[in-house]
Design a protein that fits this description.
heterodimer, A: about 325 residues, mainly alpha, two-stranded antiparallel sheet, two-stranded antiparallel ribbon, 6 strands, globular, B: about 300 residues, ABC transporter involved in vitamin B12 uptake, BtuC, about 75% helix
């Protein structure tokens, strides 16, 4: 069983590497880059929702915080121009701290209440990004922050979609390996034990508070990481990038692929990013079809497309 | 000093809006109480209610009311909107949610399906009605110079009607749920679905009935908000839905009285934030209060009443 899976993974990896070379136009390369970026983000949410079973529907807040921290560190807004490889770890650590800060007071809450609190935090983050241009101009309000530095390593700055694609693919691979290692680590097993039965997990000696905080911190840091990448790609960030609907999109990526399954999450990201693009011909009808597809998909594959082995139950069942 | 003078006026607006939040919140809370599911498409039903009300009002005005006495216009709008959204809510449950929970999907499946339904309904309305906002000709129904002065606070006829209609509908629902046989069925299913089924309650019918009632109230709220703000668009369900859901949780989800209390409180809190802090931070304050309530009193103000609340 194992060699087959590895073979498949290698084949898919190779396809991913040559994809931009056979893509008919730059637009498709851009879409592929977007899929990698959102897959990175979704893998972070998968840690919180898929592994630890904590329903977070304001996850995009961390994405936004990461984006804005990167934007502030690497743009003319404050006149700071930190190098990409220095700014990235700062963003990751800062968003992980935000995850702990937001997680700490809410972890007593179970299931859907946690979801509502995260929703509240998500909305508050968006509104703060929108309104923190007065009295002190931090976020520049609705006009966002522009002129953000592109990612540059050793003097080479990324500029074309193909370069961004390879950068994001490498980052996705990094996050994928991290997720896989976490899944089968002591912490990972603790998370999955909490998801299946919190009381039993605590009885077995797992410090559930610490484990949940770790899930929040790791999930948030992935989102911050993806946020920095988004800011460096768009070269600008706006509060509108981090609306509640975006949280729901990311959650949909995690769920329709098959919660807790890493391949499923990437498949989910590909579907959610690509579907509206595929239906672009129908232009104004594409979101209508997208909504319909979400319903149909859930009706026919309620557990997601790829059901992870050993995880028959979903979060907060 | 200026702020203090503004406060009573703002409180009246807050109560009017809060009553409507409560009306929408009832739909969330009833569905959650029975299915433990956040019906994300409920905000869209509210929006569709506003559109139905707008269409009927515009038609009536163009037809010179068609011989209808003006006093019957509002009941007519409410009736039409409530019928359409009620039926739509039942259809939504039948086709988008029931296939999921009868097949034993995870709790998140219906949530995503509801999100899909919400996106679908929003875009369906945008495509058929256009993206531009519609205007309610409220001033023909409730002229601006109809108001009463109470202790220096000007309360318009519209605001009075809004609050009374919302409270009347809440009272009707509460009486129905507490006093009738069908209402008892709803309560029994909310308490323990399996035991209710054993006792001969038709659970599927009760679920349909819950969606019918909740969605109809949402539609009525849509008409009231349309009259109040006079402008509606296909995106209005999003923030109203979010607020109403907040109200439901604030009062204690699954709890009808809690939804009403939560709605009124949220409206008042918002009006206080507008007066004393900054209108831009209205929603920040609303959500911050929600978080504080949940952190210190996780089951809401009046306590939750949902089946097996602890078995999350």
């Amino acid at each position: 069983m194992m060699p087959k899976r590895i073979l498949l993974a290698v084949a898919l990896g190779l396809i991913a590497i040559i994809a931009p070379l056979i893509a008919p136009n730059d637009y498709i390369v851009g879409t592929l880059a977007r899929i990698c970026l959102y897959a990175t983000l979704a893998l972070g949410l998968n840690i919180v929702v898929g592994f630890a079973g904590l329903l977070d529907i304001g996850y995009v807040a961390f994405f936004g915080i990461g984006s804005y921290i990167y934007a502030l560190l690497c743009s003319p807004h404050f006149g700071l121009h930190l190098p990409f490889l220095l700014a990235l770890p700062i963003v990751v650590v800062a968003t992980a701290l935000c995850g702990i800060l937001i997680g700490a007071p809410t972890l007593r809450l179970g299931g859907d209440y946690l979801a509502i609190v995260t929703l509240g935090f998500g909305e508050i983050t968006y509104l703060l990004l929108l309104n923190l241009d007065r009295p002190v101009n931090i976020t520049n309000g609705p006009s966002g922050i522009i002129g953000i530095d592109p990612p540059a390593v050793l003097g080479y700055a990324a500029s074309s979609n193909t370069q961004y694609y390879y950068l994001f693919l490498a980052m996705l691979a990094l996050v994928l390996v991290a997720s896989r290692r976490l899944q089968h680590s002591r912490i990972g097993w603790a998370w999955q034990a909490i998801r299946e039965d919190e009381l039993a997990a605590r009885t077995m000696g797992i410090n559930t508070m610490v484990a949940k905080l770790q899930a929040f911190a790791v999930g948030a840091s992935f989102a911050g990481f993806a946020g920095a990448l988004l800011a460096s790609w768009q070269r600008s960030v706006f509060p509108e990038n981090f609306l509640f609907t975006e949280s729901i999109n990311v959650l949909a990526m995690v769920i329709i692929g098959g919660m807790g399954s890493l391949a499923g999450v990437i498949l989910g990201a590909a579907i959610i990013v690509a579907l509206p693009e595929i239906f672009r011909e129908f232009l104004s009808y594409r979101l209508l079809v997208f909504g319909l597809m979400l319903m149909v998909l859930m009706i026919f594959r309620p557990q997601g497309i790829l059901v992870p082995r050993g995880a028959r139950r979903g979060a907060t069942q | 000093m200026d702020m203090i003078q503004m406060l009573p006026q703002q409180l009246v607006f807050g109560l009017a809006l809060g009553a409507v939040y409560g009306l929408i919140a009832l739909g969330y809370t009833m569905v959650y109480g029975i299915l433990l599911m956040i019906n994300f498409a409920h905000g869209e039903l509210f929006m569709i209610g506003a559109y139905v009300g707008w269409a009927v009002l515009t038609w009536l005005i163009n037809a010179q009311l068609g011989g209808l006495h003006p006093i019957w216009v509002l009941p007519m709008l409410l009736l039409m909107a409530m019928s359409v959204t009620g039926v739509l809510g039942v259809a939504l449950e039948r086709f988008a949610y029931r296939p999921l929970y009868t097949r034993g999907a995870t709790r998140l499946g219906p949530l995503i399906s509801a999100v899909g339904a919400s996106i679908f309904l929003q875009n369906a309305v945008m495509l058929t009605q256009g993206a531009r906002m519609k205007v309610y000709m409220t001033s023909l129904l409730f002229p601006r110079n109809w108001y009463v002065n109470i202790a220096g606070v000007r309360i318009s006829a519209l605001v009075l009607v809004m609050i009374s209609v919302a409270l009347l509908l809440m009272w009707l629902l509460n009486t129905f749920v507490q006093r009738t046989t069908l209402g008892r069925c709803i309560r029994s299913v909310a308490e323990d679905r399996e035991a209710a089924a054993i006792m001969g309650v038709n659970v599927r019918q009760v679920i349909s009935l819950t969606f019918l009632l909740g969605s109809a109230l949402g539609g009525a709220a849509g008409v009231l908000v349309g009259l109040y703000y006079t402008q509606i668009d296909f995106f209005m369900g999003y923030s109203a839905g979010l607020k109403a859901f907040t109200a439901a949780v604030l009062g204690g989800i699954g709890n009808l009285k809690g939804a009403m209390l939560g709605g009124l409180m949220l409206g008042v809190i918002e009006s206080l934030a507008v007066t004393f802090i900054n209108p831009a931070y209205r929603d920040v304050v609303a959500f911050a209060v929600l978080i504080l309530v949940l952190v210190f009193r996780p089951t809401g103000l009046l306590g939750e009443s949902v089946p097996h609340a602890n078995k999350v």
